[in-house]
Structures are given as C-alpha cells and as structure tokens.
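seq as requested:
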Amino acid sequence: MPKESVRISIVVVSYNTREMTQACIRSVFQESMSDDFEVIVIDNASSDGSPDAIKAEFPQVQFIQSDENLGFAKANNVAAKESKAEHILLLNPDTLILDHAIDRLMSFAAENPNAGIWGGRTKFPDGSLNPTSSWRFMSLWSILVQAMGLHTVLRNSELFNFERYGGWQRDTVREVDIVSGCFLLIRRDLWEKLGGFDDSFFMYAEEADLCYRTRQLGMRPLFTPEATIVHYGGASETVLSDKIIRLLSGKISFINKHWSEPKRTLGISLFKLRASMRALGHSVRALLTRSERHEAAALQWRSIWLARHKWAAGYKPVSK
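struct tokens:
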C-alpha cells in the first residue's frame, strides 16, 4: 500500500519490550477495521532481540533502528518524519488495542476536528481503570499536596488529587489539559507546526509540553471513553528510583520552560520537599511497622533525595 493512501500513521517506540511490542502490534492489526494505516516502529537500541523479532513477524511494518537510546521524545520525532498520513497516533509498546479503539478514536477526531489532539481511556490488564490517560497541568497546589501525601489519602478528591482529575472515572467525553503520550492522536499539520516533541524532554512530561503549546494556539485536547486500550505502564523501566528521577527531571524541565521565575523557584523547592517528605514518611512507617515494603520505599526515596542534583535542574535544553 503506498504511504500516500493512509489516513493514520501509528508510531511505536520500542526499548527492551520485545514481547509486549509484538503483542501491541498484533493488536493493532487485529483490532483495526480499516486498512488505511501504516505502522512505524523505532527501536531505541534494544538488547533483548526486539529488532529481529519484530521484523520477522511484521515485514509490513516500517522499522527504524537507532544505534542509541534516543529517549521517547526524540525517537517519536525521528519516526514521525518518516510518516505520511494526515494523522499521527503515538502508541506505547506496552499497550493493547481493545474493541477497535484506533478506529473509534479516529471517528471521535473527525467529529471534533478543532481539538487538534485526542486521547482515549486506558485500563490495567485486569480490566480496572488506569487513570494515567489524561492529566491536569501541575500547579504549586498540586505539588504541595503531593509533598504532604494528601493526593493518595484523598485520591477521589478533585481538589487534593488535582493532576489526576481525582474522582473522574474517565467515563465521559471531556476537555483535558494533557493527553498521555501512550495513546495520543494528533493532526499532522499541528504536529509539524509545533515541531513535534521538544527533544529536551528525554522521557516524561514531553506530552505535557506538547499539549501546553497546543492550548497556546487556541486548541483544547479532548478525551473520549469510547476508545479504550490496555496500558501496562512502565514496562521499559526496571528500577523505580531511576524512573522517578527521570519523571522529576521532566516535570522540572516543564516548569523551567513555562513558569515564571518566582513560581519556578518555589515549585522546584516543593519538589525537593516532596522527595524529603516521602523518604521521611516511609522511614517512620518502616520503624513503626517493621514493614519491608516501607523500608524498601524509604531506601528508594532516600536515594532520590540524595540524587537531587541529577533532577532539580531538569533536562538540559537542546539547542535548535
């Protein structure tokens, strides 16, 4: 099929997730009613045999092999340049398409063309809701309540679990601040106007930056529950503390880029407070309960606190 005939380019970034990536691609082909799409897989120098396995099972997929781990943002940018369709779907390798979700998301986009970015619902493998499909932009308030741990105690509160839209079951169409990059549909012309992801965001918060810049253009990303996928989450991350360090680096990169100086300084201080409070809180619980789980969490958060020089400045901006 010539690339010029496709309506949607599906981009998957793979990194040491061979079996999940294969299952993801299989679900794309099994759950797509139309055939006017292309799949582009870019591999970030996996060492688990992903390249050979993916190319052998899916010769119809366009495969790009990177000699280094480019990170999520840059890898998607590289792959998107090879795509030709009028819409680009960013799809994590640790996902499974359910009930024609891509077709449903495309139909939703056609009905709401001015949103520019569209997303759907994510579930865990057991069928329960995975609420990480959409987010609010962080605020000083949301960072503070996370530092105090109130977002977990009052997880169903929109006030205290602000960033996760606490209490919303992702069961209604809704305008959202951020559509997760695990299942994000965007118009090609908008992607190109924005320059894709900011390469400075190695991993995490790149979709927040993309959606923020989209909203600055007057568009409002939309969520629909009619397009549902499974999202395992964190499949390529094997060390939790490393994941949190990258997550904090991404969040602070967003703050550095979009917040004013006084607000930025306070926000970074609150993130440092959050790390120290989490380490202290788990240490106290471990002492009182002799819980191995809390002891492990205390060790993780202590290591994150001690590594604050790695994340408190955010990722180094990439010069254009």
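The radius of gyration is 20 Å.
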